[in-house]
Amino acid sequence: MPRGQKSKLHAREKRRETHGQPQDLTGPQVTAEKEEESRSSSSSSAVCRGARRRSSDSSVPQESRRASPTGSPDAGVSCSKSDMAAKGQDEKSLGTSPDASVPPETQGASPTGSPDADVSGSKSDVAAKGQEEESISPSVRTAFFTTTDRDPLNRKVSKMVQFLQEKFEKKESILKADMLRRVRRQYKPCFPEILKRTSERLAVLFGVELKEMDSSGESYTLVSKLGLSSEGSLSGDNALPKSGLLMSLLSLIFVKGNRATEQEVWEFLGELRIYDGILHSIYGDARKIITEDLVQDKYVVYRQVRNSDPPRYEFLWGPRAHAETTKMRVLHVLAEMNKSSPGLYPHLYDDALIDEVERALRLRA
Fold it and tell me: If you average pLDDT over residues 69-75, what whole number do you get?
């Protein structure tokens, strides 16, 4: 090979070495650093996303997902596509009453003046009312009692609910900083979701709302969703369990036509895995609470059904319940828990509306 060509080749190799060497040294290192940076920045969000995906399967018990005789609305907070689909099905199942979309004044009306048409109208009213009672069933709450907490976020929620219950019973301040300290670092980005689920669970189990005390959002308190006095159901020993059972009892009495037999009450509570004579892990002695404590507090009336032989008993709203809350407020809470609206239950809405009018007239008198 001629000498000039050798020199050119040698120079070319030198240039390749000087330009290529830094590339070979720094390229993989920079890539590795970038990958590490990407992994660390996405790890937090991955934890939340993974927990939310698992939540779509674990937040609702298997028997509720397969079939439910009462509509089985989803009680959990849904974030994934499957959760949103379940939520849509729940709302659809709660609005299945054929009379739900018809204004109350037209439901009993007949297009013809025949007596048969009036009879059929009254039958449809009874059927619609029965469907309303089925719609507002305890199935929305059952998930909280039967779910196995495979979802890590739900486990955090369970611990948070227990922590807030202890704080409330000891009459200690509920601070955001204290709640954050109970969440491990990897779950801190999920705190808003944990707080949201905690608030929903408190509402379902105890009938209370986790409410900010000021605009800073640094301190919270628990207040009754039914507007009950803090010196009443939310005072004394066992306050939160009493509040939870009271909300269930007042709701059931309202749905059942302003009185509920003892048998109906225990059937309702049985769907929540609360049984007569068996201590419950959350509510304790349910019989004592509903037949003694709430009766003494004048929130419910527990009396023998007239002329019943053998004796049967029934529950009604007590004077204190009438004074501190309203049927309309109960209906709004029920609709909210069932992810629905009060207008979808026309018979209950009419009853609540009449109650509002009567209250206004009493205040004027």
Answer: 37
